[in-house]
Amino acid sequence: MGVINGTDFGIYVGGTKIASATSGSVSLSMSVRDATSKDSLGWSNSLEGLQEWSVEGEGLFALDAAYGYVDLKSVLTTRTAVTIRFSSETSGAEYLEGTAFLVSLDADSATEESMTYSYSFTGTGPLNFKALT
Questions:
Q1: Pairwise CA distance, residues 81 & 101, whole Å
Q2: Mapping DSSP to helix (H, G, I), strand (E, B) and coil, where does residue 20 land?
Q3: Domain 6-131: assigned CATH number
Q4: d(CA 62, CA 72)
């Protein structure tokens, strides 16, 4: 498969694409746990630990957006776990999907610039690869 155009990907909340997006990213990480002992000869040893993931994005702020800041504010204030999908919505293509909580939502209004907002979801449980049918 060739290089993917980032414009083709969107972030979906419960199957609805976040409108007027300007960027989006997915981050996966794993912490490690200390396994150093007196037998480690002065070297730190580590073992696998918890895995975690997050999804972040930015968009243009519009109160009348099909799904935007106002909708995300509702997700945050109701403390609702939602299904997040990072996808191109191309039939047969793989996408990432998992359950997450919206943990931050910020709006920015610079002088003589388009107003924007940013958001961050933190996953709860696994982030899965699936094929769009």
A1: 5
A2: coil
A3: 2.30.110
A4: 12
